[in-house]
Write a structure and sequence with these properties.
Blueprint: H1 15-57, H2 59-71, E1 79-81, E2 86-89, H3 91-94, H4 104-121, H5 134-137, E3 144-151, H6 163-179, E4 197-201, E5 221-227
Parallel strand pairs: 3-4
Antiparallel strand pairs: 1-2, 2-5, 3-5
Length: about 230
């Protein structure tokens, strides 16, 4: 007796295998995405830690840069030196040679700078730091003790009473009148309750261009930032 076997194909569908591979691929992609997010987060955290350490090592430099970069919005060519804590207002903006009277454009510019400084400086001044935003802007609690408005001249002698030393003092006073007096900055006080801004005059003794003390760029006014002492 001959037995006939059916040769019908019993093909197995590949769909389950494809679904499994697709799921595995999705899982790998998901893990990879999470890994990238974690790496980015750790990198940002590391950067924040480095910036915090830098701020601890040089708090005056950090404060100077913070204030100076804001002033640059109104005076792009202002010079900021975090190492010395000095922000230099350019001579071409301020005075004509031999004069302590601010140019009209300087008066207008310093009025804008005053508003900018009041906004950014408040988080570094003892009697202004209660603003909640200061917890973010100044988490280390650095405090400015004083800001000296320093007048300078070039080395060319002046035929006037008091000479260059008197001229440099009058320049500092002129900047103070335009920048501080009658503005919110006049109300800023340090931890001892003293006014934040004061004057000093150096005539030609601290030239910006040392190789040529007669250079007109030495006719300038500096803002020198001094922080309150705080032990580690």
């Amino acid at each position: 007796m001959q037995v006939h076997r059916s040769h019908h194909s019993t093909g197995v569908s590949a769909e389950p295998e494809h679904s499994y591979l697709a799921s595995a691929a999705d899982m790998v992609i998901g893990f990879l995405f999470v890994f990238i997010i974690m790496v980015a987060f750790l990198a940002l955290q590391k950067r924040a830690e480095q910036e915090a350490r830098a701020a601890d090592r040089d708090p005056r430099g950090t404060v100077t840069l913070t204030i100076g970069n804001q002033i640059k919005k109104d005076i792009p060519n202002v010079q900021v030196d975090p190492a010395s804590g000095v922000i230099t207002l350019p001579e071409e903006l301020l005075f004509d040679r031999g004069s302590a009277s601010l140019k009209p454009v300087a008066v207008e510019t310093l009025a804008r700078v005053s508003v900018t400084m009041a906004e950014v400086l408040k988080c570094f001044v003892a009697n202004q730091m209660e603003d909640p935003i200061c917890q973010q802007e100044n988490p280390r609690g650095h405090e400015v003790e004083t800001i000296f408005i320093e007048g300078h001249t070039d080395s060319l002698p002046m035929n006037r009473a008091g000479g260059n030393i008197r001229l440099s003092l009058e320049r500092a006073i002129s900047v103070n009148e335009a920048l501080v007096e009658g503005t919110p900055l006049a109300e800023f006080r340090n931890k001892d309750g003293y006014p934040l801004f004061s004057h000093s005059a150096y005539a030609e003794t601290r030239p910006l261009i040392k190789e040529d003390p007669s250079d007109g760029r030495n006719r300038r006014v500096d803002l020198r930032i001094v922080l309150a002492y705080r032990p580690d």
